[in-house]
Amino acid sequence: MRQDLRIIVEGMDGAGKTTLINNLKYGLDEVQFEVVRNPHDDKQDFSKWWPEVADRPKSSIVPIHDRFFFSEIVYGPVIRGSINAPDSLVTNIAYFLRHTALLIYARPHSDVLRESI
């Protein structure tokens, strides 16, 4: 049996992901959350990491992912020149997430975007 629900917060650096996660954690007293920070570095191996995520035991604690596989799609080609996952795994992840996850895209305020230009 696996976790039925997870929340994924994605967005660029400075978008307010951590602030949003903290507000979720402390604003909903009746729900227990666990923040999961997913590694996205040059050694990332989704073939090993994905089963740990997909087969997580069912629990009343809802995982909130501070970045997830979607960041690999964006940053993988920048860091390594490609996405570090076979096509079949990408398909499995996309299917799984459509049925078990709430994806929140955090976008920085327009002032933050202007400052980064």
Describe the fold and architecture.
There is one protein chain. 44% of the residues lie in helices and 19% in strands. With 117 residues, the protein is an alpha/beta fold. The model has no long low-confidence stretch (mean pLDDT 77). The chain has a 4-stranded parallel β-sheet with strand order 2-3-1-4. The chain is flat and about 40 Å long.
Strand and helix layout:
Blueprint: E1 6-10, H1 17-27, E2 32-37, H2 46-54, E3 61-66, H3 69-79, H4 87-100, E4 101-105, H5 110-116
Parallel strand pairs: 1-3, 1-4, 2-3
Distance between the termini: 46 Å
Class computed from helices, strands and strand pairing: alpha/beta
Low-confidence stretches: none
Count of individual helical segments: 5
- Please write the string of helix (H) and strand (E) elements: EHEHEHHEH
Features:
117 residues, alpha/beta, 4-stranded parallel beta sheet, 5 helices, 4 strands, 19% strand, flat
What's a concise summary of this model?
By secondary structure, this protein is α/β, with parallel strands linked by helices. The chain has helices at residues 17-27, 46-54, 69-79, 87-100, 110-116, and strands spanning 6-10, 32-37, 61-66, 101-105.
